Amino acid sequence: MINTAEITDWREARRRAARDAIIDAAWSLVVEEGLAGLSLRDLARRAGITVPTVYAYFDSKNAIYDAMFGRAATEFAERMAEPFDSDDPREVLKATARRFSQFCTNSPAHYQLLFQRTIPGFEPSPESYAPAVGSLALARGRLALNGITEARHLDMWTALITGLVDQQVSNDPGGDRWTRLIDEMVDMFLAHCKSTRASRKPASRPTQVKGVHT
Amino acid sequence: MINTAEITDWREARRRAARDAIIDAAWSLVVEEGLAGLSLRDLARRAGITVPTVYAYFDSKNAIYDAMFGRAATEFAERMAEPFDSDDPREVLKATARRFSQFCTNSPAHYQLLFQRTIPGFEPSPESYAPAVGSLALARGRLALNGITEARHLDMWTALITGLVDQQVSNDPGGDRWTRLIDEMVDMFLAHCKSTRASRKPASRPTQVKGVHT
DNA sequence: GTCTATAGCTGGATAGAC
DNA sequence: GTCTATCCAGCTATAGAC
Q1: Is B159–A185 a contact, with Cβ atoms under 8 angstroms apart?
Q2: Is the distance from CB of A100 to CB of A58 less than 8 angstroms?
Q3: Which of B7, B119, B190, B198 is at a distance of 20 to 30 A from A116, taking alpha carbons?
Q4: Residue A42 contacts by C-beta under 8 Å, 6 or more apart in sequence?
């Protein structure tokens, strides 16, 4: 005997698989052609379907961007959550920075969609955005292991790392002119935080997280 | 008696003025609507002319981007070259960073065109790019006044400053959550360079400038 | 759900009269 | 040099048959 709930589950699984396949095609296309060059025609062709079929699964192009964002954010969170070889807090921090930069330089398109806001009308939905928040908390914890807890220093950390990545992607794509500076940057940062502990006054006004960070 | 050289000069001045007016309109439009939203129709309307007239002065849309780049690079170079109140090298460096960030946060569109490479088929011509090279030399000189001469440290400097600006523009537009960290960042950077002088081995392989930096 | 066919629009760029 | 008028390519999105 078959109940209706089973049928519903089965249908929803099929539907999700189809959606996933479309997002697969979208990412493979965007990695090759760039984020701006994504068109529904090309996407449909790559996915082996037609444009109206795409619309059977996504309401609009922005809905596709949103699903792409969610996929990328999940992959990013998983990558950053993987365990490290070392237990030394400093090494963990360096490895974190290296992972982040590797993720971004491997695919500038991922970096662009997740961390820069370059697509005109698009903002990620809270659901797609959720995994990124977890990653930020993770980074906060790894900084805390190094005795860094001030909000000001967390902002400095994100600026340091994204600055390296940004220069690398913009001015030396495929190279390592900036990424090879990661270890030195982290050492500099840790030395600074240690030396200024309780010597500078902390940031006075409350800050709010608006974007995705390491 | 009128000679032909005078007539030629006069015509060229007129032509240059007309070109300038079009670039004026282009920038005013881009500052309002964003860099990606520039269309020749809107541009012509804003400039009070028609599309074919635009083509009488520019061969293509990319030629317009190039002229916009040249204008922005010149303004940037002039701004960065203005004298400072203090003679203290450290203060000069901080003021340099503040000026840079102010220029970028005042108009993210300028920042995007000059320092990020987000427009698909566009690369600036050497002529438009020239002023930026001068600014880089200027920054190198100001770092040298602080005893910083290694190429590695110059790259760290550009990463630090653009990182702050990037986070500011992306995640707290209109605010100062990151820009207010400039002084602390510069102090951290100077302390690091001082402490590592002749203690770390210098970067081994030669580096080449591909992009515009501070 | 998937297709063919097409609407409806906006983009860059041009022809040709004046 | 400046216009009117137009071309043509690309885009997102939809109507309607199956």
Answers
A1: yes
A2: no
A3: B190
A4: A29, A33
